[in-house]
């Protein structure tokens, strides 16, 4: 059945009007035309709000427009029970009237709102009615309408508030999000947030689905904690990686934000409000600025040179503090054209003329002149300045440096009679260093000093070695009372300072060749107690507090002692030589979470050395700089600024770290963390000067540098050795073929030619497995060094070395059993019995090791049951001597496991108990009851057939 709905509405007594999406009148019935006093041909096609205008900010305007917006947005009918709205008649006379309206959506084929049908009633008379004589019904109806009007107005105000909130929410410059429920489902997200994360479908999705890339970055876990605890969380500058587009790469962002829990009326958290700011641009700008400032600051304030800048016309406009401190000039007094006032009068004119020529030609300025020091002395400096150009080749400014070359000048003059070519080599090397310095200054590389140290170590240490050898031999040729001896002694001290500086530079740049081994740090520090107390002075008291069962550390002994001495001397200086210091040594275990932000360190066991002082503390602004190379708060001439930086480099190179904590007026503690060794501690052995001796053996010396070769050969000859030399590995092998009889190979590591020193050594040891080899080198990245550590089993001597150091290393090499032979399982000297000793008490373990060595056995020590089991997995032993009471696994349990893997191994239990039940069960066991001596132990070994009865009897 078809109906003509237009006729129906046309016949309806109530006013109807049909509006399109622009609120344009499409159709209206006669009742509507009558009540509005309009004609169809003049009304149709007009926009309703223009035909019947009202102030958009008025109550009527806001009510009407709000209703239309709700219908278009939600697609459902909206009612206005009472709306005041003025209507002007055909003559233009306006009248305030009250209406009741319903707006019904007419949907299109796609489900969208295509038209709005407005049904409106004029209720002005009813709304304005006063009390009538017939009673209360009209009054009640009027009251209802007025209350409806009040509700409508309240709803309007509520809509206005909601609209205002939505406008603020959407247009807010900071991002805002509401997440609901424990899965953090997106309820709302404003435009700023969508810009931050990329335009994607978020609403209604949980966080892990909507932003999957946030997993693993800590944000979901943080939201979980806020939802669980109900406590807000605030962070500034948090880093996040966002996948803003499906095709693009993850992008880095930085945000300040607050996670604010949303609670219901019962105080239960039902969601989280996220509000914050995207500060990526600010952070990146800050990072770039810090990088630029750090590059310049590092170059200007940490390099061992004076740095200055000048305008394009040559006027100095910035001078580093080092130059003012060096010269003693008042700050600011050398700017402009005043800088020549501190130049030696004889050098002044030439330096000014050279500077003028460089400015005129816009080429590099380079000269040497003497600068006046604060004490009035003049010292030579190498002065260089580079012109800085823009992209168009225009000169912007000059950057210059003054490098102190006074020592080089004096050394070259004093040693000219010892080596005719030394001056030429120093000059050539200086030019190379100057060129390198120029490149580093132009590129502003922060790692300049570290790279420089590694790059020049080989040649520089070779040069120092020539000086050491030549000076040593020159001293022998002079009588004790010769005046030249004093000059040579001064030259030798200068060489030692150069070697020390080279070592320090390599240390903080983590390139020094370390020879780590298993060491008991308590024994190591006790061994140098006299040195410590001498260095600190009588005014300082030192207390060493170590754990009873201290783990061994895997470190280089000499470097460890130097690091601790550095820390102690710094503490002494801070306390002005008076007070008490404490050295605390303890075992520490660190898990992955404990080492966050420490990518170079691995989770595991470490030994901690803490140096604690009661000094004035370190100011907060100074604390971040204390490990910077060349940074020092000491007066000029009182320190190089390399002390703490070398400790830092040593700790990092050893696989540990160093940290510092300080509180003003309370004191400072420096914590040195070193890796735990996997094997038992080796005894600390230092050579007594009286033990230094030479020999008569034949040494084959391989060294490509003729001067180093001659100097080293002279030292060896002076020690009594017969010396044969070769200039490279190929020549060495040829020499061996002609004269195969020699006792020791001493070889440089870095040499030219197709055959490397390691290849030569392996070739010779293949023919002679018992051949001892001593490598010498002045460079840290050699083929025998891995990650800064000398390969296991390699005898190594770093250049420059003294005659005594060479003598010790040569005797050690000649006396040692080659590591390669041991690794192949060749017979040990005299077929000695190899004992695995497990005892957790360090003092008892030390005594037992001495007893066993006295019985003619070889001893490997462990302190824990698991360590013992691990040793037996990788090495071979003849007998196990084990304490019953161990800290981790009982000795009886260890013995039971050992017997399963090694059925025939003899086991000796050391115990304070009367008996060990498991000894009888396992068989081939013996028990010695504490306290016991060498005779008791020898008797137990003899009962198991480990030692001959005669040796046991000798022990008795």
Overview of the molecule:
Strands 2-1-5-4-3 form a five-stranded antiparallel sheet. Strands 7-6-10-9-8 form a five-stranded antiparallel sheet. Strands 12-11-15-14-13 form a five-stranded antiparallel sheet. By secondary structure, the protein is of the alpha/beta class. It is extended and about 135 Å long. It has 32 helices and 34 strands. Helix 16 packs across helix 22 (about 705-720), helix 28 (about 865-875) runs parallel beside helix 29 and helix 31 runs antiparallel to helix 32 (about 950-955). It has seven domains: about 5-165, PAS domain (Beta-Lactamase), CATH 3.30.450; about 170-280, PAS domain (Beta-Lactamase); about 305-405, PAS domain (Beta-Lactamase), CATH 3.30.450.20; about 405-510, no CATH class; about 520-675, 2-Layer Sandwich (Heat Shock Protein 90); about 690-825, Response regulator (Rossmann fold); about 830-955, Response regulator (Rossmann fold, 3-Layer(aba) Sandwich), CATH 3.40.50.
Sheet with the most strands, sense and barrel status: 5 strands, antiparallel
The largest beta-sheet arranges its strands as: 2-1-5-4-3
Summing up helix and strand content along with how strands pair, one would put the structural category as alpha/beta
- What is the radius of gyration? 45 Å
Proportion of residues in helical segments: 40-55%
Terminal CA distance reads: 129 Å
Quote the CATH topology of the largest domain. Beta-Lactamase
Mean pLDDT, rounded to whole units? 78
The CATH homology group name of the largest domain: PAS domain
Number of structural units classed as domains: 7
Strand content: 15-25%
| Oligomerization state | single chain
The count of strands amounts to: 34
Shape: extended
Number of helices: 32
CATH architecture of the largest domain: 2-Layer Sandwich
The CATH class of the largest domain is identified as Alpha Beta
> Which residue ranges are poorly predicted, with pLDDT under 50 across at least 5 consecutive positions?
130-135, 438-448, 786-790, 817-830, 948-956
